[in-house]
Design the sequence.
C-alpha cells in the first residue's frame, strides 16, 4: 500500500493488551492505569482476522507488543495464529523480557521469529528504580532463553535521556557486545508534548520513511504514533479501517494527547 506521500506501508504493530507487569517511569503512572474493559479488547480471532486482511493489503512485517504482550493469556496461541498467515516475512515481538524465560521456547515453536527486549540499564538497583520494582535477573534470564530458542537477532531497546554516552547506555552497550545482542537507543519521548526523535540503530521516528500502522488492543488502527487519529476496526470493518488509516496517515508526527505508549505499544 502506498499512502498520499508515496510511502510504502508494510509494517503492522499490534498491541495485544494495555496491561503490564512493570511500571516504567517514562511509560506508566505508579498507580497503574484505568484498564480497558474485557469486552473492548479484541479477541484473538479478531486480531488474526484483521491481520489476514492487512496482509492481503500489503503488510509483510508484524510486531506483537503491548502493554506487556506476555501477560496476555494465550499469547503463544495468538503467535501461532499470526504465524499461520501466509505472507508475513517478519514476525517479531517487543517485550520487557520478565516472563521470556518461561515463554521463549514455546513462542519460537509457534512461529515467532525474533524478539526485541527492553533494557535501559544492567545495574539491578537502577533497573528496579526505572521499572518501579522489576528484577533485572528475570530479564537477563529471559534474554538467554530467547537466544537459546533462536529468536534471533535478539535486539535490545534501550531508552536514554539525551545521549548514548550516559553511563547506563554505555553499560548496556558493553553487555550487548559481550552477549551477541544488537542495541538500539530510543530517546525518551513525550507524546503529549510532541517530543520525538529517530531511533538510533533502528527505523522508528523517521517520518519520511515511516512504513507503519498500529493496532491498539481495543481495536483502533492508528496511522501515526504522534497523532490522535485512530480508526475503529470493529465499527468500520477491517478493510475500511485500513483504507482510512492509510489515507489519512499524516506527513509527519506532531503530538498525541489521546494515547500513551502502553496502549499503542511504542
Ligand atoms: N512492554 C513491552 C516493552 O517494554 O518492551 C512492550 C511495550 S513498550 C510500550 C514498547 C517500547 O516503548 C519499549 O521499548 C519502551 O522502552 C518504549 N517506551 C515506552 N515509553 C517510552 C517513552 N516515553 N519514550 C520512548 N520509548 C518509550
Ligand atoms: Fe510496561 Fe513496556 Fe511500558 Fe515498561 S515500557 S511500563 S514494560 S509497557
Sequence:
Amino acid at each position: 500500500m502506498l499512502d498520499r506521500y508515496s510511502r510504502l506501508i508494510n509494517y503492522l504493530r499490534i498491541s495485544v493488551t494495555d496491561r503490564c507487569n512493570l511500571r516504567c517511569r517514562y511509560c506508566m503512572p505508579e498507580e497503574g492505569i484505568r484498564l480497558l474493559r474485557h469486552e473492548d479488547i479484541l479477541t484473538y480471532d479478531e486480531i488474526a482476522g484483521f491481520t489476514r486482511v492487512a496482509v492481503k493489503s500489503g503488510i509483510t512485517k508484524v510486531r506483537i507488543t503491548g502493554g506487556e504482550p506476555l501477560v496476555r493469556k494465550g499469547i503463544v496461541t495468538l503467535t501461532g495464529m499470526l504465524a499461520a498467515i501466509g505472507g508475513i516475512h517478519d514476525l517479531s515481538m517487543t517485550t520487557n523480557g520478565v516472563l521470556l524465560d518461561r515463554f521463549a521456547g514455546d513462542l519460537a515453536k509457534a512461529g515467532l521469529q525474533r524478539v526485541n527486549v527492553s533494557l535501559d540499564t544492567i545495574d539491578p538497583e537502577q533497573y528496579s528504580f526505572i521499572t518501579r520494582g522489576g528484577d533485572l535477573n528475570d530479564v537477563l534470564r529471559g534474554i538467554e532463553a530467547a537466544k537459546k530458542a533462536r529468536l534471533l537477532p535478539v535486539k535490545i531497546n534501550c531508552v536514554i535521556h539525551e545521549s548514548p554516552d550516559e553511563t547506563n547506555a554505555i553499560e548496556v552497550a558493553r553487555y550487548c557486545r559481550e552477549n551477541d545482542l544488537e542495541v538500539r537507543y530510543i530517546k525518551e519521548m513525550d507524546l503529549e508534548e510532541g517530543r520525538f526523535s529517530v531511533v538510533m540503530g533502528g527505523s522508528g521516528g523517521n517520518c519520511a520513511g515511516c512504513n507503519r500502522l498500529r493496532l491498539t488492543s481495543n481495536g483502533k488502527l492508528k496511522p501515526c504514533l504522534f497523532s490522535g487519529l485512530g480508526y475503529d476496526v470493529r465499527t468500520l470493518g477491517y478493510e475500511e479501517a485500513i483504507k482510512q488509516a492509510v489515507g489519512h496517515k499524516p506527513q509527519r508526527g506532531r503530538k498525541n494527547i489521546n494515547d500513551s505508549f502502553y496502549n499503542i505499544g511504542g
